[in-house]
Design brief:
Blueprint lengths: L2 H8 L3 H9 L15 H6 L2 H13 L6 H6 L4 E3 L10 E7 L12 E4 L17 H14 L3 E6 L5 E2 L4 E2 L4 H15 L3 E6 L24 H4 L10 H21 L5 E5 L19 H25 L6 E8 L2 H13 L7 E5 L11 H15 L5 E6 L5 H7 L3 H16 L4 E4 L5 E2 L11 E2 L2 E2 L16 H12 L5 E4 L8 E7 L5 E7 L5 E7 L6 E9 L14 E8 L2 E6 L3 E6 L7
Parallel strand pairs: 1-21, 2-19, 3-4, 3-12, 4-7, 7-8, 8-9, 9-10, 10-11, 11-12
Antiparallel strand pairs: 5-6, 13-15, 14-15, 16-17, 17-18, 18-23, 19-22, 20-21, 20-23
Helix pairs in contact: 9-10, 10-11, 11-12, 12-14, 14-15
Length: 582
């Protein structure tokens, strides 16, 4: 039967499958539904205790984990021929002769330095036990770098009008960095500053006239502002960032290896700026502003002798093709060695059951037109983008795990340096009580693949997909090899090779039926043995531990081809490594 006709006939199964997967794990969530219950949950969270006790009990069993996972695996030949005439088929090349990325940073995640904060005015603070359990979850997720909110207010004493680098907020940041350091996770300190211009008093309007900037008095911090002198203000900011690096290192936080000086440093998403966002002059001016600030920070770091310790990432623009227009001007104003990493971001995937790969691919191609080489490029935010009224719930569905993997395969195929999921976990923002249709409930940012421990310790289904890719495929320092990514077959793949020569292949099947898949290697693998780990939307059991998905099949003697039948809506990792459960 024609595979496209067959694909159409199977489409009627989508609704039935979607209903079962969307509800996966819902019966196991122990959510706290009101703020009034939070304080009691903090003091008596049994699920968190269960996470720690279970992990401690199993720590002595690590030496036998390999026996449990690998001894009884079914063996099959990697090049076995298919005998299924009526099955959908997909054939992909893996171009493993030449890497598209020689020094992969791994997969990162947005995870803010909030767990050790104790200053929430509503009393929604973690206990030490909960904070440590969450940090352990982050480490076990497999991310290599966490990107965190950071503000001048964390170290500024507004009453004394002076910096206090031993403030409670800074102590929480130091503790966060040190806890992640023990788990081998680096930190990206992201100065949280959303505005069209960082320090200027006014922008240019679409009519060419100067217009007042909305909220200017609130958008440039009193600790650095020199009224009427933009350059002096920028120099003050650069010194503040240099002192931030010095203090982090003095407190042992040597894993805080990267900084970003602004978050979305232009404001196309602000309604009050709608009259100017299409103007090339405003794009040039905004890009020049952020570039000059990064230049000043880099120069200050060199002067202070700390540039060698820190990478600078910029410009953190957002918005797909619109972001590339800003980047075009940014390149004209940035000093050659001021940015170690460049970044842009966007979100895709309104329908979680669709093949949305082409959306990521098209944007990546647009980015590459202006960015050029992706050797030092970071997609600094990504996730699905459902309708606002559906986003909070749908991002926690099993299908979200497939969509996250689609984005990751695309990033790998284009040889990107790294990427950051927005967000790794749901988090309670301190002193925040906001609620919005698409992201916040009573100050909890509901965009993660696992909940805040204030509400539940049971991870969401996508956690298993993300941790599978991050732990096995996303090793720091790996080489990346691209796979075919034509969208008509609905299966996508990319391969990583770690420093020890071990191979891991990330494969995503977006079809609604099982698919006979053939991976063909440009260069022979000379008889490699692969272990298969499968994330299937219809077979996810969520727990507090969030265990790494175990291998279920051994494929031996892989040379120039690896054949397998892949389940519908699934993420598969084939790896030559024997990975121990965390």
């Amino acid at each position: 039967m024609n595979k496209y006709l067959l694909k159409a006939l199977y489409f009627v199964l989508v609704l039935a499958i979607a209903v079962s997967a969307l509800g996966a794990c819902s019966e196991k969530e122990d959510t706290v539904n009101s703020s009034s219950d939070v304080s009691s949950e903090v003091s008596s969270n049994e699920d968190v205790s269960e996470v720690e006790d279970t992990d401690e009990a199993s720590s002595e069993e690590d030496t036998t984990e390999e026996d449990v996972w690998y001894d009884d695996l079914e063996d099959t030949e990697a090049d076995d021929e298919f005998e299924y005439d009526d099955m959908l088929t997909a054939s992909l090349n893996i171009y493993n002769s030449k890497a598209v990325q020689d020094d992969f940073m791994g997969f990162g995640g947005v995870y803010h330095a909030f767990p050790f904060r104790t200053d929430d005015i509503y009393g929604r603070n973690y206990t030490e036990k909960m904070a440590n359990a969450e940090i352990k979850r982050v480490i076990n997720s497999g991310i290599t770098m966490a990107r965190t909110f950071y503000s001048i207010d964390d170290s500024w004493d507004s009453k004394a009008k002076a910096f206090n680098w031993e403030s409670d907020q800074m102590q929480a940041i130091y503790k966060y960095c040190l806890a992640l350091k023990e788990g081998g996770v680096e930190v990206l300190i992201n100065h949280w500053y959303c505005s069209s211009f960082l320090f200027t008093t006014y922008p240019w309007g679409s009519d060419g006239n100067k217009v007042e900037k909305p909220g200017q008095q609130n958008e440039c911090h009193e600790s650095i502002r020199v009224p009427g002198d933009q350059q002096a203000t920028i120099e003050n900011f650069a010194e503040f960032m240099a002192e931030t690096v010095r203090q982090l290192r003095a407190h042992g936080c040597t894993n805080a290896t990267t900084i970003s000086i602004a978050t979305e440093p232009y404001a196309t998403w602000k309604e009050e700026w709608a009259d100017i966002v299409s103007n090339d002059e405003i794009k040039n001016a905004a890009s020049k502003d952020i570039a000059q600030t990064i230049n000043a920070v880099s120069a200050n770091f060199k002067k202070a002798g700390i540039r060698k310790y820190i990478k600078i990432m910029g410009p953190n623009f957002a918005g797909g093709t619109d972001a590339t227009l800003y980047y075009k001007y940014f390149k004209k104003h940035i000093d050659p060695d001021a940015c170690d990493l460049v970044s842009l971001h966007n979100y895709y995937g309104n329908d979680l059951t669709k093949d949305n790969y082409d959306l990521w691919k098209t944007c990546a191609e647009d980015y590459k037109t202006e960015v050029g080489s992706f050797s030092n490029f970071v997609w600094d935010e990504y996730n699905c983008s459902p309708k606002a009224e559906e986003s909070i719930e749908s991002r926690h569905s099993a299908y979200n795990g497939v969509q996250l993997a689609l984005a990751q395969v695309c990033f790998m195929n284009y040889g990107m340096k790294s990427s950051f999921i927005w967000s790794l976990l749901d988090q309670q923002w301190p002193n925040n009580s906001s609620t919005s249709l698409d992201s916040f409930k009573d100050g909890v940012h509901m965009c993660g693949v696992a909940p805040t421990f204030l509400q539940s310790s049971i991870v969401f289904p996508p956690y298993y997909s993300f941790s599978l890719a991050a732990n096995i495929v996303g090793e720091k320092g790996s080489k990346l090899y691209r796979g075919d990514d034509d969208t008509y077959e609905g299966v996508y793949a990319a391969m990583a090779e770690n420093k020890d020569g071990e191979l891991s292949i990330l494969v995503v099947n977006t079809n609604i039926t099982e698919t006979a898949t053939e991976l063909k290697f440009e260069k022979s693998l000379k008889g490699k043995t692969f272990y298969r780990h499968v994330y299937n939307v219809n077979d996810i059991t969520c727990t507090a531990e969030g265990e790494l998905i175990a291998p279920d099949l051994k494929l031996t003697n892989a040379t120039t081809v690896l054949r397998d039948v892949i389940e519908p809506y699934s993420v598969v990792v084939y790896t030559t490594k024997k990975v121990l459960q965390k």
